[in-house]
Amino acid sequence: MKNRWLVFSSLLVVLALVAAACGDDDAATTTTTAATTTTAGTTVATTTLPPEPEVAVDFGVTKAPCSDAVNDGNGCIYLGVISDLTDGPFAALGVPLTQAQEDFWGVVNANGGIDGWDVVITPENTIDAHYDAAQTAEGAVTLADRVLGLAQSLGTPQTLGALPTLVEGEIVAAPATWFSGWAFSDVDQGLIMESGAPYCFEAMNGMDYLVDNRGTDFTWALVAFPGDYGGDYGAGAKIAAALLGLDEPVAEILQIPVSFGGDIVPAVTQLAGLQPDVIVMVTGPTEMAGIAAGLFQTGFQTFQILGAGPTWNVALKGNADLMPLLEAAYIGTAPWGGWDTDSDGHAAMRAAAEAAGQSPSGSYVAGWVWQYPWLALLTEAIESGDLTRANVAALAADLGGIDYQGMLPERSYAGEPNDHVVRSTVINKADADGSDGVSPLTSAFVSEIAADFDLAAPCFVG
């Protein structure tokens, strides 16, 4: 199992050895310059290789080593994080997600870095924006002169709020979000490196799975956060329902996050009265679990939940009263396989987590996956001899050959959205025996609806 940067470094070593061997055979064939030194009266012939070409740098990159450097001779690339780390609706996701990204680069650095460069996410370049758009925008301004780019920007409205600063500074970001709009250069200006299927394709595949397993004779309701997350996933669910011959949802409930003052009681009351067969849930884990528990307490226990990926958190596995009920009711969509998935990338991720003392978490998996585009981008920028923001941004817009070590198929950002958007989804079920509280019902698949859908515009425009 070798990353591109390891293969490239090995190739340099081999070439250096070959060049040295050739230099011994014939002085006329070498491009090195000859010199002599005298030690204790003995003259020794030496050669001097031409200097390595300089790599151009500006913001967030130093030719000096990182503080507490793993590799003293390497330069340092600083990446920033803007996340939800304490009391927002996705703090349970943001904390392990951020830890995974720190661990990812720790592994890269421990293996020598990227061709003479280490990559770090430092505490001073990590901002808790509480899943708030204004605070995310402020965080981007704070980091604008300190980092090359963002290893993480959590939330779509939040990232869109920061986008003017990203555009002005030519700052590339990996989003912790699956908004379908990231596939469009007129939305993200080529600066956002998304991974996995957009929310709307996840929902299409999830609805298709339901029909395959239940037929079309069921009622359904939609409970969703406001904004792109609820809107994009909800749009995909409704598109699929129409194409699959399902009725319109019996209710579309807008659920404000509890951490923002939202109340789940009205949703529980309305759903208990309507008793839909399926509840498509596009919330955080707190809201999903609270609504499920409330419905069980009313005596309505025959519903099934189809949850978007962010509705699940491994902490639910520890709720001895609720978990057995969720095992009967909850299935969820995800853009990639969970903790126990067999791939080279998952194996590397699990090894890093174990070494760092991190417990299994789907959020940790997500954080790890989101760094592969940065690895590919930095490798290409270093090879080009230019780590300036302008060059990194130019390369990101059409970046190809992104190798996820089997966690996702290799991908590119070049071309039109339909050329490169990812359409595959995994369906999981709640399972107390799963390391991250879920186990797979399917491997990655693409429904006919998702495969044929023309992504001519974002599924949701708010």
Overall CATH class of the largest domain? Alpha Beta
Query: Which regions have little confidence, pLDDT < 50, spanning 5+ residues?
Result: 1-51
What characteristic shape results from the CA principal axes?
A: globular
- The CATH architecture assignment of the largest domain turns out to be 3-Layer(aba) Sandwich
How many helix segments? Answer: 16
Classify the beta-strand content into a percent band.
15-25%
Main sheet attributes: strand count, strand direction, barrel closure: 7 strands, mixed
What is the number of beta strands?
A: 15
Average pLDDT reading? 89
Structural class: alpha/beta
Question: What is the C-alpha radius of gyration, as a whole number of Å?
Answer: 25 Å
Task: Give a description of the structure.
- The structure is a single chain.
- This protein is an alpha/beta fold and 462 residues long.
- Helix 7 links the parallel strand 9 and strand 10 (252-254).
- The two termini are 43 Å apart.
- It has a seven-stranded mixed beta sheet with strand order 10-9-11-12-13-14-15. Strands 3, 4, 5, 6, 7 and 8 form a six-stranded mixed beta sheet that branches. A two-stranded antiparallel sheet has the order 1-2.
- The longest helix has 22 residues, at 4-25.
- The model is unreliable at 1-51 (pLDDT under 50).
- It is built from 16 helices and 15 strands.
- The protein has helices at 4-25, 91-110, 133-143, 156-169, 185-188, 199-214, 228-244, 265-274, 285-298, 323-329, 344-356, 362-369, 372-384, 389-397, 417-420, 448-452, and strands spanning 33-39, 42-48, 61-62, 75-83, 117-120, 126-128, 149-154, 173-176, 220-224, 252-254, 278-282, 304-307, 330-334, 426-430, 438-440.
- The chain folds into three domains: 4-48, no CATH class; 61-197 and 340-420, 3-Layer(aba) Sandwich (Rossmann fold), CATH 3.40.50; 199-334 and 425-452, Response regulator (Rossmann fold).
- The radius of gyration is 25 Å and the shape is globular.
- Helix content is 40%, strand content 16%.
